Amino acid sequence: MQKKQNAKLFSYISHFPTHFSHSDLLLSFKKSKKATMALAPLLHSKLPSLQLLLLISIFIFCSSLYASDDPPLSLDYYASTCPAVFDIIRKEMECEVLSDPRNAALVVRLHFHDCFVQGCDGSVLLDDTITLQGEKKASPNVNSLIGFSIIDKIKNKVESECPGIVSCADILTIAARDAVILVGGPYWDVPVGRKDSKTASYELASANIPTADEGLVSIISKFLYQGLSVKDMVALSGAHTIGMARCANFRARIYGDFETTSERSPISETYLSNLKSTCPAAGGGDDNVSAMDNVTPNLFDNSYFQILLKGEGLLNSDQELYSSMLGVQTKKLVAKYAHDPVGFFKQFSDSMVKLGNITNPDSFTNGEVRKNCRFVNT
Ligand code: HEM
């Protein structure tokens, strides 16, 4: 298996950078904290060629750490201990999304930010205490990540039915799946059996989570580090078909290359001037929000990709998927999903299962089922 992976890796590198399509082969490479930590400062370099070289270095480094452990999750983990758990979560999410469709987006993003830090272990849900520094104040999360009270409500309901059985990490994973369905997206089965961590990592939350003004190669490397491919990254970015972004995260884009990438039609000019009035150039209005999919903001569909095709993505990181010179494979995928909603749904479902299967091995031995998602049990 290792030999086969290395052969595929060699093939990838020998075609690099024009043949991006082989990056999927890196899926099962085990993540390496050391690799990312050591290379992180260089990944932000402005030199594309250097970035590309570094990406190759990460591949090689990660390949030496390949391991084939599957996460110990199963579909029927709660079949005898809490058979009602899926129904309880579904019912609560129905109420939440009915009261405000944006709640679907909040939960999906919470799940993503949980899984990219120590694996999907509920670490993002922990509040700061005297003895624990949580992830909520890390730069990608502070003033931005919301929706924790939705998970609190679901947890209370689940605890009253099956006390001490269902982890917060599982609740968040199931709720994210239900959130997507409730706004019109695809269904997928959710493997469960995660444990909640007793720790969180402010540092990893700051380092691992991609940001709006980060370069494409750096974002790709963050997904590869988690064992997710370029294909996963593009499909998962399709989650931006729902939800809002704050002006602080799209100011650079609308006063930057938005006009260059867009069609400059009267409609796109109007859209841009509306965005500018929501988000003034010089200071102020940082927390004003705009939908990332201005066509169908509350519907989970493929219009996000059609917007990228028109060059009107709201975030720099979104538009880069289609417009970056380095995005040979990402551009093809954006075009594919813009024209093939069924293909997008299928890949999104598969990639969400992979995202949810990024587990924290330590939580299986040292973790717990938290009583309150905000605090480690006493
Ligand atoms: C590819 C790299 C990604 C980057 C750079 C990125 C960045 C961002 C940013 C900057 C925002 C706006 C936050 C704010 O302004 O407060 C946002 C919102 C959002 N992101 Fe991402 N994201 C990425 C991938 C993902 C993935 C993989 C998912 C889920 C699978 C996701 C789900 C969401 C959702 C649903 C929202 C809207 C949340 C809301 O309405 O508050 N994102 N993202």
Structural category: mainly alpha
Order of SSEs: HHHHHHHHHHEHHHEHHHHH
Instruction: State Rg.
Output: 20 Å
Q: Which molecules are bound in this entry? A: protoporphyrin IX containing FE
- Low-confidence runs: 1-47, 59-68
Question: How are the SSEs ordered, and which strands pair?
Answer:
Blueprint: H1 2-15, H2 33-43, H3 48-63, H4 85-99, H5 102-115, H6 148-161, H7 168-182, H8 202-208, H9 216-225, H10 230-237, E1 244-246, H11 247-254, H12 258-261, H13 266-278, E2 289-291, H14 303-309, H15 316-323, H16 328-339, H17 341-356, H18 361-366
Q: What are its keywords?
A:
378 residues, mainly alpha, two-stranded antiparallel sheet, disordered N terminus, binds protoporphyrin IX containing FE
Note down, in words, how this protein is organized.
This protein is mainly alpha-helical and 378 residues long. Helices cover 52% and strands 2% of the residues. The protein contains 18 helices and two strands. Strands 1-2 form a two-stranded antiparallel sheet. The site of protoporphyrin IX containing FE has 24 residues, from helix 5, helix 10 and strand 1.
